[in-house]
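Q: Predict the bound structure with flavin mononucleotide.
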Amino acid sequence: MKKVEFNQILTDYKEVLPHGVFLTTKADGEINTMTMGWGTTGYIWNKNIIMAPVRKSRYTHQLIENSQFFTVSVPLNGQLKKELQFCGTKSGRNHNKIEELNLELLEVEECEVPLIKGNNLHIIAKIKYQQDMMIDNLAKDIVDKKYPEQDMHTFYYGEVVAVYQE
Ligand SMILES: Cc1cc2nc3c(=O)[nH]c(=O)nc-3n(C[C@H](O)[C@H](O)[C@H](O)COP(=O)(O)O)c2cc1C
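A: Predicted complex:
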C-alpha cells in the first residue's frame, strides 16, 4: 500500500460516497463494518477532517462510542457491490459480516481498527469531536423525510491521520 495526501483523493471520494463506502470500527475485540453513504470532509482546527454520521440504532454506533478511531475503505471502481449491499442492510448485532462475506482485513500501524482489503482508498481517522443531532435544531422538511422515527445521527469528526492507496 502507498501513502497519499488526503487532498489528492477528495474529488474521487465525493463521487463515490453516495454509492457507499465501508465504515469500519473495532471495540472490545469486535470488528464490524457498515455501509456509509453520507458524510463530509473539511478543514478545521488546522486539521484535515472526515465526518461520519452514524444513527444511534446501528451496532457501529455502539462500537465507535468505545473507540478512538474509525477507518473508511473506498471502492472507487464500483467493486464489492454485493458486500456493500450486505453491510448496508445487515447488522453486526446478528451477523459477523467480515466472516460471512470472507472480507480480508489489512492491519495498520496507526490504530487497532483494520481496513477492508479490495478497496482503492483507505482513510484512517482519529475521533476529535462528536455531536448528537438535536431534532429541534433541524429543518422540519428533513426531519419529516429522513428522521420519521427520530433515529438521529451522531456526527463523528475524525482527524485524517493517514490515507492509503491499495
Ligand atoms: C448505500 C447505503 C448508505 C448508508 N449510509 C449510512 C450512513 O451514512 N449512516 C448510517 O448510520 N447508516 C447508513 N446506512 C445504513 C447502514 O449501513 C445499515 O443500517 C447497517 O446495517 C448498519 O450496520 P451495523 O448495525 O452493523 O452498524 C447506509 C446503507 C446503505 C445501503
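A: Residues 6-16 form the longest helix (11 residues).
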